[in-house]
Amino acid sequence: MAQGDVEIRSVRTDEEFRKAIDLQARLMAGAGYLDYLDKMQREAELWPALKRENVRVALLNGRIVSTFRLFPLEIRIGCVTVPIGGINNVCSHPRYRKKGHMSALLEDGIQCMRRSGIPMSMLHGIPDFYYRFGYASVGCDYKLVVQTRTLAGFSKSLRVRKAKQADLPEMRLLYDVTYGERTCSLVRDDRVWNRLAPELRRVRVIVDGSNRVRGYFWLANRRDYFRVTEVCVEHNEDVMRTLLAECGRLCRLAVSGEARFDVPPDHHLAVYCRGCDAVMETRYKHNRDWMMRIVDVEELLSVLEPELSRRLQRSRLAGWHGSFGIETDIGSIFLKVADGTVRCEPTRPRRLSQTVRISQSVLCQLLVGYRSGAELGGDYVPAKLREIVAALFPLGNPFISPEDMF
Second label for 155, Cα 20 to 30 Å away, from 93, 148, 175, 378? Predict the structure, then answer.
């Protein structure tokens, strides 16, 4: 795609690829340029597509002035996995900023995803920028805080040691059990785990007498406070007490007065800590941090039919029958509800009760549970549809592990 004198496309040669990631590393990492560049090169080996078609660039007279990377990933929305385009390293050369190059590049990237059959996009955004391109906040900052003096009251009945490469199969299983239906959690295939493998030095595993991994926790790479960025453990008293006792020991070594755990409020650890002195905080971020947008409404809702049907069956409206439309700024879809199932239809049914009119960004927030259908007023949802919309779009706790930052 060309816009004026600017050419917008994917990189085509190894030399263009090298220049693009060099610009990204210099602008994103600053003093840590060399380490960041090395990390990006390793990631390119794990995601072969990153070497060419998924590194997008805007060129002015042959010079790369703006660029970003597009990761082909999958996330969970309830019981369904959804392909997404994960965007990172969005940057423009300082000399060419505020000239519309990045805007054109991002708009082209969204169209590229649509052509590739990717129904959603996700990124970790700077404040008050990406909403212009339809991205909406979907991630909360969850923080469970336990004082070190409280942790001192727990004792270990299991052993804790540093993680090894051989622990990865059991760690993968624990992750899938913990986050198997956690909306917004990343589906970690071989590529993702291989990307995380160099950071295993920050992981501690809880093992029993037969050296079986019963849980693991990921320590943040920080010195100013004690933080655990990921917790995947069996729902077991001995495992929980061992985890908290070990974190108390590490807090005392770090001379930290408290431990912070990045877990949502319905996580096993957060629920267990209701029995002791602990604080659970939820912070909502507006137009920044984890953000998503829908790329193709029809494709996305079709993928989500099993999850929408499950939500219906779990509600008191499992016997509801009818059809209604959802009209957004990027397209419309019609939902047919009957016999405890939800089906998506691209064309208007003969009998259509009424239509919900919302932006795709609001629909995105509803689908992941960041907002609930019950919040929508009469300007968006007709009175006859309020109960079914509330049933299909309940409030949840969307969460993506900090270790999956891309």
Answer: 175
Q: How far apart are CA 383 and CA 18, in angstroms?
A: 56
- Cα dihedral 171, 172, 177, 179, rounded to 10, equals 110
- Give the pairing of strands 80-92 and 258-261: unpaired
DSSP class of residue 41 equals H
pLDDT of residue 42: 85
The per-residue pLDDT for 267 is 97
Q: Domain span at residue 12?
A: 2-135
Whether residue 145 is found in the same domain as residue 243: yes
CATH number for the domain spanning 322: value is 3.30.1050.10
Out of 80, 108, 135, a domain closes at: 135
> What's the 3-state SS for 141-202?
EEEEEEEHHHHCCCCCCCEEEECCHHHHHHHHHHHHHHHCCCCCCECCCHHHHHHHHHHHHH
Residues 77 and 146 reside in one and the same domain: no
145 and 278 part of one domain: yes
pLDDT of residue 4: 58
Residue ranges of the chain with per-residue pLDDT less than 70: 1-4, 349-353
Pairwise CA distance, residues 44 & 38, whole Å:
10
